[in-house]
Design brief:
Blueprint: H1 3-30, H2 45-50, E1 59-62, H3 67-72, H4 77-84, E2 108-110, H5 116-130, E3 137-142, H6 149-160, E4 165-171, E5 174-175, E6 178-179, H7 189-194, E7 199-203, H8 208-225, E8 229-234, H9 247-251, H10 255-261, H11 266-277, H12 280-303, H13 309-314
Parallel strand pairs: 1-2, 1-3, 3-4, 4-8, 7-8
Antiparallel strand pairs: 5-6
Helix pairs in contact: 1-11, 1-12, 4-12, 5-6
Length: 347
């Protein structure tokens, strides 16, 4: 990989890393952000590499730990931060918060329902296929999401209909505080995925060159064969499950895992490589620009106004629909609201 490409990846990677660290640091001293936040510190590498392949008409449908993918899709940082503060200038006008963070102009969506966005990928990818688009739908879940039944229904249909989807599973081995070995009899995702005749790729390396190479392989396969691919990405978040709190201190649930990943930080590894092949001044310039972007976004969000309550109601009580909707079905059977309540006796 050439120096310029590595710098582009690092620019995104540092922007993700610094945004997470800065928001973690100011969350509680201020107590002004209006939602719980799932930070992604430590899991920036794949999203950073993905940024080099994305075009506007691609879709990203992410899980709730979505900030890295939001940034990789080149969605505006200031609107993301304003969303966390519950401000009108937020990407969803302050109504969605972190777990439902979206930016429709760039086809980026995330959702709080476990594995919910995985299934929605079927719809966006099907549209891409029937209109002969060359675009891809990227959808992301964690290893905990692999325990949802809808995942396997989705894999089955994606394979059956040969849909252009890149499924990404970020495997950090924990669902909140519970290790994968305590949750499931089989954690062999390769066998499960290949049972649906879907190409499976494992990324267990932490070096950016290796991650980029395997990601490129997956994307080229989808475009050449018009079939889905599943990537299992071994990673480790180095922040708490939710919020700025360090839940490792409270629960002490993954000490050995964090030690294992201590020397496999993709961010630090890439920074050291760039300093060797480039110069520290150019790296410092990238970092200074990112720091200014994030801090400026925070300042703007703090000063911004919240959405008027009556205006917010209008988003839920709309009076018009898409012109594709021609009519609505009418119920054929009236609901009997006065029916008796069933009361069960104890066994």
């Amino acid at each position: 990989m050439n120096k310029n490409l590595l710098k582009k990846i690092y620019q995104i990677m540092h922007l993700i890393r610094f945004s997470q660290e800065h928001l973690i640091n100011i969350y509680h001293p201020e107590d002004k952000m209006k939602c719980p936040i799932h930070f992604c510190k430590g899991q920036e590498a794949l999203a950073s590499c993905l940024s080099q392949f994305l075009v506007k008409d691609d879709y990203i449908l992410s899980h709730h730990r979505s900030h890295g993918y939001y940034i990789s899709k080149k969605c505006p940082i200031d609107q993301m931060v304003a969303e966390f503060y519950g401000k009108r200038s937020g990407s969803n006008e302050g109504l969605a918060g972190s777990q439902e963070l979206s930016y429709s102009k760039n086809n980026f969506y995330s959702g709080t329902i476990l594995s919910g966005m995985f299934s929605i990928a079927l719809g966006t990818a099907y549209v891409q296929k029937i209109y002969n688009k060359r675009n891809i739908t990227y959808t992301v879940i964690g290893d905990g999401g692999m325990e949802e039944g809808i995942v396997y229904e989705t894999l089955n249909l994606a394979s059956l209909k040969s849909l252009p989807i890149l499924f990404i599973c970020e495997n950090n081995r924990y669902s909140v505080h519970t290790n994968i070995n305590e949750r499931t009899k089989s954690s062999n995702f390769k066998k499960k995925v290949e049972s649906f005749d879907i190409k499976y790729i494992k990324i267990s390396e932490y070096e950016i060159e290796s991650i980029f190479k395997k990601l490129k392989e997956a994307i080229q396969y989808i475009k050449s064969n018009a079939k889905p691919v599943f990537i299992e990405y071994d990673t480790m978040r180095t922040c708490g499950h939710v919020g700025p709190e360090d839940d490792d201190k409270e629960h002490d649930y993954r000490k050995l895992d964090l030690l294992k990943w201590k020397n496999k930080d993709s961010f630090i590894d890439l920074r050291k490589k760039l300093i060797r092949i480039s110069n520290i001044k150019s790296i410092n310039l990238i970092e200074k620009r990112n720091i200014n972007i994030v801090k400026s976004a925070v300042t703007k969000a703090q000063k911004a106004k919240t959405l008027n309550f009556n205006t917010s109601l209008k988003y839920n009580l709309i009076k018009k629909f898409s012109n594709k909707v021609k009519s609505f079905a009418k119920p054929s059977i009236d609901f009997k609201s006065n029916q008796k309540t069933t009361k069960l006796n104890p066994y």
